[in-house]
Amino acid sequence: MPYSSARFASRRRLLKWLSGSPLLAWPGLAGLAAEIPQVAPPKRPDPMIWGPGELQDLIKDPKDAINVFDFEPVMRRNVPPAHFGYMASGIDDEITLRANREAFLKYYLRPRRLNDVSKVDTSVEIFGFKYGSPIFISPTGGNKAYHPDGELAVARAARAGNHLEMLATGATTSIEAAIEARGGPVWFQLYATSSPEVGIALVKRAEKAGSPVVAVTVDRVAGRNQETLFRLRRTDTRNCKDCHESGQGGGASGDRSRRPNYDGIDLSQVRSFQSDNMTWDYIRRLRDSTSMKIVLKGILTAEDATLAVKHGADGILVSNHGGRGEDSGRATIDVLTEVVEAVKGRLPVLVDSGFRRGTDVVKALAMGAAGVGVGRPYLWGLGAFGQPGVERVLELLRIETRAAMQQCGVRNVKELNPSFVRRV
Ligand SMILES: Cc1cc2nc3c(=O)[nH]c(=O)nc-3n(C[C@H](O)[C@H](O)[C@H](O)COP(=O)(O)O)c2cc1C
After folding, report:
1. Would you say residue 42 has pLDDT above 90?
2. Is residue 409 classed as helix, strand or coil in its secondary structure?
3. pTM of the predicted model as reported, rounded to 2 decimal places
4. Of ligand 1's atoms, which has the minimum distance to the CA of residue 355?
5. What are phi and psi of 125, to 5 degrees?
6. What is the enclosing helix (H) or strand (E) of 373?
């Protein structure tokens, strides 16, 4: 420890000891006592886990948020423990969940100087659609568990910031209603179920509604041990059945079939809402069944990226489901280059899982991502303040991304390339 900080630390220890000591009553030590309140409080835990820990410190208005983490504890206060636990949970030891954040520390930016960045264009074009920002809304099911406006609030916030939005099959709002609220096309995330016919029926419905792209989730095939959810659920004193079995809870867990995207679809052949029997042949079959673009969500290796190209996919979303798939320990930012190199520019490669800062976004764009998705951050905003919370989360991410681009000396997303990033 350098001398000055060692001295500071020992002075701090002395002051801490004195604060609990009767010695302070001595007149000669009164001056020191005045210093005690100025001693810095212990550093907060890493914001990847929590923002302010004290309830009285919580932001009261979305405008007060300094970063996206400020919303999480507000959501925690507002939302039932079981619902918060479902959102926060990873799998098992949550190694992948942590890795998604920690891996960003392994990459640093290489900013370039003396470029005119007084005008910056953060827009991107994906499949012919232009968005104001490379940041997109990753699909998350059951948004009404966090706020009564649910996915409608999210869609309206996406509209306000002109963000690409993906709606989950298990949303508590139909694809038709989400498209209306977004005021433009919304991608449809597909959980194909164990019945190929049901998967195709869901896609056809989304296509009819005007959705241009189906994001087929390929990374959820097994049961999962969501320990944070299970532990927090035990602390929830409400009677879950009241909502979940009455349908008010959107058919969550108890009966998924009540989710609105399944309306009118014959589910009698569905053994499971997961797709443990899905193979590459299914992607071919889907290709032949729809004119929608097909993006595979959850690809994590060069081998599968190559197979995705071979089987007619139009895009790839590198994702580990926000650490909710398998506890592999591998962050998506560590996967991105492998997939981008395998694809060789033949398809757009998107990425999500663990993105919380503009610099995270810029690193991924420089490494070749066509867009960067967020899941939990907008749910924090939703659970904290509804639509204005989601809007502010997205705004903060836009502000940070724009600033990081300017600092790197680039005027638009296309100017970013791998030379702007190095691995430590
Ligand atoms: C509460 C929650 C629900 C989710 N639901 C779905 C879903 O229904 N379908 C899906 O493909 N991904 C789902 N995901 C994964 C997200 O699409 C996304 O990959 C992930 O949240 C990104 O990581 P992040 O939360 O760290 O930003 C869900 C994630 C969360 C946190």
Report:
1. no
2. coil
3. 0.88
4. 27
5. -120, 125
6. strand 371-374
